[in-house]
Amino acid sequence: MSAPLAASPALSLPPARNLLPLLALGAIALAYGGTLWSMLAIWARSSTFAHGALIFPIGAWLVWRRRAELGTLERAPCYPALALVAVLGALWLMARLAQVQVAAQFALVALLPAAALAMLGPRFTRAIAFPLAYLLLAVPSGEVLIGPLIEFTASFTVGALQLTGVPVYREGSFLTLPTGNWAVAEACSGLRYLIASFALGTLYAYLSYRSFWRRAAFVAASVLLPVLANGVRAYLIVLIGHWSNMQVAAGVDHVVYGWVFFCLLLLALFWLGARWREPVAEAARRGPAWSGAAPRGAAAACVLLAAAWPALAAWRMPEPPPQALARPIAIALAPALADEAEFRLVQFQSPDASYGRRLRLDARHSVVLQLGHYRHQRAGAALEPAGGARVAGDWRELGSTARVVPLGGGELAVRQTVLERGGTKLLVWRWYRQSGVETSSAARIKLLLAAHKLLRLRQDGTEIVVATSFDENPEQAAAVLTRFLILMRPSILRGVEHDSVN
């Protein structure tokens, strides 16, 4: 007679005292509730990152399916791992102070495996290393890949069209064909396909293969194939639109075609992957011992050490009062300049003070000067150097690059962008002044902000934008902007400094 179902080792539950690590991990997650909530909010509103809501349940299932084997492993606290908990907490604090949400989210999720290592020890943690690492895919990240993916998709589409004899003119991410115009927008970059394919491919490789090289090969295929397939998808959509005289695949229907194409790609990938599938050996069905004392000391140390950083953040960065309306910044004009009109090219994120005017430099040239100043940076009202120019209206971005501008006795690093609308082209330079330091580096801005918040020094930041129009040669516009900055930069800095300290 077989043993009762409840007594089967595969279905045995750990003793209640072994739930202590789970309770400790839950307490850590609650201590970082603001960061956890920011992830939940992104999962709810973004189709690109909606898969994140499934990652934690999948990770829990991956651990649960190995419970018979895990019950036989020795568990012993690893107190040196508390140092890793402390380092990740410090990284979370720096990211929180610098308003880098994705870095704070990564630090929080990485805290959970580190705490598990401290409470359960290396042998037990090694057995669940993949489920713990898989949790990192819950972090909504990847926007940094949008630019390169758009560039690849546009280049692939143009090359394929030219190979098939279709005339095409490319300007940035915009394509012009005899039958109509196309734009490789963010939704066409293929990021959502890439993220979904990587998440599914990594899980499939873990469940289907045992050797490292087969797993690595399948994961690599799940990354490379969606990128290449998105280029093919974009080419086919443009080609269908061209052949149908923009009657088919020119609207929302090409999004539907894209998802159908992606699903077929995944089915083909998994079908091919199944041909080299390796049967995973099941763990020996020994009676689970769940040996080892409850890690009370390590669990308490993990919770206290992890919770110290959110408490420090609340102490070092009290929320400043919201600014109802942006006040104007007083900028003294050089004698050679004349004020023409108000002009807003960039949409700043709830600045404390602002300035936006079109100024006459000479009889032929006008320059737009715009500033967004943040005296107290906070969530929803801070410099966002990595977030793009946030251009108002229907301007199209044709390209962006870094540039160093010689200004008399010194140099100024700026981010140069070319915009186009209705045949008018603008050359735009923008840079930042964080805590009294001029820079165009997003990393330097965030490090300055974090350090100054931690030390309670000045935290003000300003985004400065200048722009002028040109016909064909952007270097003519660059010469105009250089001349303008030689005249106006000292006055701009004095106006910003006066607003920062008064």
Largest sheet: 9 strands, mixed
What is the tally of helical segments? 15
Which value, in Å, is the CA radius of gyration? 28 Å
Terminus-to-terminus distance: 86 Å
Question: What's the helix-strand series?
Answer: HHHHHHHHHEEEHHHHEEEEEEEEHEH
Q: Classify the secondary structure makeup into a structural class.
A: alpha+beta
Give the overall shape, derived from the CA principal axes: flat
Average of the residue pLDDT scores: 84
Q: What is the chains' assembly state?
A: single chain
Residue windows where pLDDT falls under 50 for at least 5 positions:
1-13
What does this 3D model show about the protein?
The protein has about 500 residues and is α+β, with helices and mostly antiparallel strands. Helices cover about 50% and strands about 15% of the residues. It has 15 helices and twelve strands. Strands 4, 5, 6, 7, 8, 9, 10, 11 and 12 form a nine-stranded mixed β-sheet that branches. A three-stranded antiparallel β-sheet has the order 1-2-3, with no helix packed on it. β2 and β3 (about 180-185) form a beta hairpin. α2 (about 35-45) packs across α6 and α5 runs parallel beside α13 (about 295-315). The chain is flat. It starts with 19 loop residues before the first helix and ends with a helix. Residues about 1-15 have low confidence and may be disordered.
